[in-house]
Amino acid sequence: xxxxxxxxxxxxxxxxxxxxxxxxxxxxxxxxxxxxxxxxxxxxxxxxxxxxxxxxxxxxxxxxxxxxxxxxxxxxxxxxxxxxxxxxxxxxxxxxxxxxxxxxxxxxxxxxxxxxxxxxxxxxxxxxxxxxxxxxxxxxxxxxxxxxxxxxxxxxxxxxxxxxxxxxxxxxxxxxxxxxxxxxxxxxxxxxxxxxxxxxxxxxxx
Length: 206
Prior knowledge:
Layout: E1 5-8, H1 20-28, H2 32-40, H3 43-47, H4 53-64, H5 70-80, H6 86-96, E2 101-106, H7 110-119, E3 128-131, H8 132-135, H9 142-156, E4 163-167, H10 170-179, E5 182-185, H11 189-201
Parallel strand pairs: 1-2, 1-4, 2-3, 4-5
Helix pairs in contact: 1-5, 4-5
């Protein structure tokens, strides 16, 4: 089977992920434990586009001890996690030379999605950027994968088996395989390269 499209997760795959709360505590003394309840609860509605992150987070900033605006909090957060995996970005760009479509599919609310698209310039790296806020669902829900595939099928007319999916979280990989994508768990860049090479070496099914 041919590889015609590769779908990438963001944090932990395309981005060298580290929770911004580590630096939040170091620089501002606001602990991970203090902010985590928000991200465990209200943030989930922001991820799927039901709620606006700025409006939801605003009431909590004062109780956390943040003395600046909501916009400045988000700016600190997004810039802290602006750590693209340079090797992966270079590899993805090379895929374009092989006429392979690349898609970023990430559990993100709308503001960080915009930051990734414009500030991190992922719009220059990927053919499509799809977030959970767009899909109104998130990984590992099958609805999320259905949304991705609808976009792929409409624009590129690929079959499910033409699509390779990479994520660093096991349950998301399991869900991707259940949906019908060739799905793999990202561990290291070398493992990723080796696996991709083996996929390209497979004879195409006609």
